[in-house]
Design brief:
Distance between the termini: 21 Å
Structural class: alpha+beta
Number of strands: 2
Protein name: Alpha/beta hydrolase family protein
Number of helices: 2
Number of domains: 1
Strand content: 15-25%
Strand order of the largest sheet: 1-2
Length: about 60
């Protein structure tokens, strides 16, 4: 699992203490400048890149 947080939304702050416990099993990233809906210019490209990087490589 990969958790992608929006930098301009308070969920990362609420999850921060729990992330250390799940770090070995799950990835997480914060996209700075993103709101909860990831609609800011250029943010959807970053969201796509993070999602794509997480998906298994299918040759």
């Amino acid at each position: 699992m990969k958790i992608i947080f929006a930098g301009n939304y308070n969920m990362y702050d609420q999850w921060k203490d729990h992330l250390e416990a799940i770090r070995a099993e799950h990835q997480h990233v914060v996209i700075e400048g993103a709101s909860h809906t990831f609609v800011e210019p250029g943010i959807s490209t970053q969201l796509f890149a993070e999602t794509h990087a997480w998906l298994p490589d299918r040759d």
